[in-house]
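Repro:
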Amino acid sequence: MNNIMNMMGKVKELQEKMEKIQEDIVKIEEEGVSGGGLVHVRLNGKNELLGLKIDSSLCKKEEIEILEDLIIAAHKDAKKKIEARMLEKTRGVTDGLSLPPGFKLPL
């Protein structure tokens, strides 16, 4: 019985550490650049597209903001679909487990 209690304590400790790591990862922001600096994207640790800048030499100046918004919307749509598929795939694995309420797998 002592081993089970010890193991449950370690699981709780692991969950707390993973939650802290996930909180830290979300705060990470990085910028990617391509085309010799003509295109810049900014993502956070959840792969959310925070910003997009396209140089005006690549298309008409009045179309840039619309193009940037459309690309951001397409990225959000794809990300939402990926998250739904990930949830669907992991649900089959976790259905038989009696995980504590609120326990999240590190995905």
